[in-house]
């Protein structure tokens, strides 16, 4: 009934233009980031500010985000982001060893995600808890 009550004949003077959002043009006040394309990670570094250390993640277009806790990074990353970050971390530490705490932490956390080790205490407990064979 609602459709019948709001029906306007084609001959009427009502504006029948397609809404901007239907053709991909954002309207004023709209969250443009939601419409943007996802860009891949191109680099990472350890960033220090006010005696605190962070991971600075750099995407294409020089867009950056900083994270102090690895779990916060996991909340915002998808699998493609994690795989790319793991590749970048492996490249960096293929010829050198991690020396700073944040370097060691990201190496260990990503290694646990991508290379489960039977000798790792975390994996031993997961195997025991979830009966992984």
Verbal overview:
This protein is of the alpha+beta class. The protein has a domain at 39-130. 37% of the residues lie in helices and 17% in strands. The chain contains five helices and three strands. It has helices at 2-5, 70-76, 79-92, 101-114, 121-130, and strands at residues 41-49, 52-59, 63-67. A three-stranded antiparallel sheet has the order 1-2-3, with helices on one face. A hairpin with a 2-residue loop joins strand 1 and strand 2 (52-59). The longest helix has 14 residues, at 79-92. The N and C termini lie far apart (60 Å).
Helix content: 25-40%
Radius of gyration: 24 Å
Structural class: alpha+beta
Percent in strands: 15-25%
Overall 3D shape = globular
Continuous helix count: 5
Count every beta strand, where a strand is a DSSP E run of 2 or more residues: 3
**Assembly state (oligomeric):** single chain
Mean model confidence by pLDDT: 77
Q: For the largest beta sheet, what order do the strands appear in spatially? A: 1-2-3
The ordered H/E elements are: HEEEHHHH
Q: Show unreliable segments.
A: 18-24
